[in-house]
Amino acid sequence: MENCFEMYRTIVMPAHCDHYGHMNVRHYAAFFDDAGWQMLARAGVSLRDLRDRGLGSVVATLTIDFHHEIKAGELALIMGSFTRVGKKSFAYDLKLYEVDSMTHCATQKTVEVCFDLAKRASVALPDDIRDKLAKLFVG
After folding, report:
1. Per-residue pLDDT for 16 more than 70?
2. What is the CATH number of the domain that holds 19?
3. CA-CA 20 to 30 A from 100: which of 51, 56, 62, 124?
4. What phi, psi does 15 have (nearest 5°)?
């Protein structure tokens, strides 16, 4: 799929699993969090550049929908795509797949807000960053 990027790969370990034998929700959240840190870089926006401008991005909302279980010993792949770019915020979807069958196991929908690190408040996305994100937007 165009503008959908590989964000993260891992393996589900026995320690990730609960007493039902499938990965516990806390580990889905960790895998998605690791992948989410890569989203801006995929658009050509470095964390260093944001920090140099006194900016960051913070999660405003996220939801995770669970579609299919994944178990210990299975490989996981997370793919990501930008779904919205606004004045102060942007949204993206992350989808976790079991690699061998490419079964879609879970989806995280995230909204992040541009954040002034000194003022501790939301601010408008700089135009150059908004432009980079908009180029990857999947409508």
Report:
1. yes
2. 3.10.129.10
3. 62
4. -70, -15
At residue 1, the pLDDT reads 53
**Cα 63 to chain center, whole Å?**
11
Q: How many domains does the chain have?
A: 1
DSSP strand pairing (55-66 vs 103-116):
antiparallel
Helix or strand or coil: residue 126? coil
- Asked whether residue 103 is domain-assigned, the answer is yes
126 vs 128: CA distance, rounded Å = 6
Smallest Cα–Cα separation from 60: which of 96, 27, 24, 84? 84
Q: Report d(CA 126, CA 88) in Å as an integer.
A: 9
DSSP state of 20: T
Half-sphere exposure of 16 (CA within 13 A, CB side): 20
Question: What would the pLDDT profile of 72-125 be if each residue is shown by its tens digit?
Answer: 999 999 999 999 999 999 999 999 999 999 999 999 999 999 999 999 999 999
Residue 139 lies in a domain: no
